[in-house]
Design brief:
Elements (H helix, E strand, L loop, with lengths): L1 E3 L10 H14 L7 E5 L9 H16 L2 E5 L5 H13 L4 E4 L3 H9 L7 E5 L8 E6 L1 H15 L4 E6 L5 H13 L4 E6 L6 H13 L4 E5 L4 H11 L2 E6 L10 E7 L1 H13 L6 E5 L6 E3 L8 H17 L6
Parallel strand pairs: 1-3, 2-3, 2-4, 4-5, 5-6, 6-12, 7-8, 7-9, 9-10, 10-11
Antiparallel strand pairs: 11-13
Keywords: Cell membrane, Lipoprotein, Membrane, Signal
Subcellular location: Cell membrane
Protein name: Nucleoside-binding protein
């Protein structure tokens, strides 16, 4: 079953909702797994980035593992999470995903009250027995984005716009640029928001005023706007979370892709097989959780080849290139 919890109990709201509920009732008859999974999101699924990947991960669980699935959007407080969990418990849901760091602490706090459920979140620290947090190691993907930017900049100035101060992608980007070419200046700014598009674009304008020609927008709530602005200016970007080459292959040199959807399927399959570990699990290039996206034709083949070789070496040895 695929069920959007947001619309439960709404019957005469609009044609689109009626189609959704009709589709749900059709899917109910085909599900055979004894497990049920649910997804809680602090925003909506239509952001073309992080939340959209979580949604597609849920679809993977439904289609590949034959689980009943449901989701609820705009759940961002402890009270809202508890209300959702009470309802999900009544429906027999036993695997709950919280799509983001904010859910880790809340799941840890509430998990003892829902002993028959297992909780999975991303990038936050957890400690309880029935809670798992999957950490994407963002440092290496930022590092390789920086390596490419350092090799491709014409102005010897590049920039990274991060959403949160704790993001290792930004630190990795700076280090990657500097190890590739120490003469390239790196502007590193944080806007303290995942989705403040106005602030991100103002930060971008400030970077462009300093002659930056390649930008890494490390925030999935504003990366598309930043890339589109760079496209207008004839400048370059490194895509974030998803492969953004479709936004302009002449603009997006490559992307740092987090395969969140695959991690959903992996966690759900491990849960079905009683193999899902509790605690904090880190994933990176080695697990296939992170890859680089398609290269722009603007990236010379020799540069592509060198970066691919460096990534393969990192996957084999765990050592990042320093020259």
């Amino acid at each position: 079953m695929f069920l959007n919890r947001k619309y439960i109990g709404l019957f005469i709201v609009g044609y689109t909702v009626l189609l959704l509920l009709s589709a749900c009732s059709t899917d109910m008859s085909t599900a055979s797994s004894d497990n049920k999974a649910a997804l809680l999101l602090e925003s909506t699924i239509d952001d073309e980035g992080w939340n959209s990947k979580g949604y597609h991960g849920l679809l993977n669980i439904q289609s590949e593992l034959d689980m009943e699935v449901m989701y609820e959007e705009n759940v961002s407080s402890l009270g809202a999470v508890k209300t959702s969990l009470d309802t999900l418990k009544e429906e027999g849901v036993d695997l709950v995903f919280g799509h983001g760091k904010i859910f880790a602490e809340m799941f840890d706090e509430l998990s003892e009250d829902y002993a028959d459920m297992h909780f999975v979140s991303f990038n936050g620290e957890v400690s309880n027995e029935n809670v798992t947090s999957i950490h994407f190691d963002g440092y290496a993907m930022g590092y390789f984005a920086g390596r490419l930017s350092g090799a491709m900049s014409d102005t010897n100035t590049v920039g990274v716009i991060s959403a949160q101060k704790w993001q290792p992608e930004a630190e990795g980007f700076v280090e990657g640029v500097q190890t590739k070419d120490a003469s390239v200046e790196v502007i590193n700014n944080n806007i303290e928001s995942w989705d403040d598009k106005e602030k991100a674009l103002q930060t971008l304008n400030d970077m462009l005023a300093e002659d930056a020609d390649i930008i890494y927008p490390a925030g999935d709530g504003f990366h598309i706007e930043v890339i589109n602005k760079l496209k207008e200016e004839g400048l370059y970007a490194i895509g974030y979370v998803g492969d953004q080459s479709d936004l302009g292959e002449s603009t997006v040199l490559t992307s740092t892709v987090q395969h969140v959807d695959e991690m959903y399927r992996m966690a759900a399959e491990q849960y079905q097989n009683n193999e899902l570990d509790s605690g904090n699990i880190t994933v990176d290039f080695q697990e296939g959780a992170i890859t680089m996206g398609e290269y722009s034709p603007r990236v010379p083949e020799n540069v592509q080849k060198q970066l691919d070789e460096e990534i393969e070496e990192y996957k084999q040895t765990g050592e990042l290139p320093t020259e």
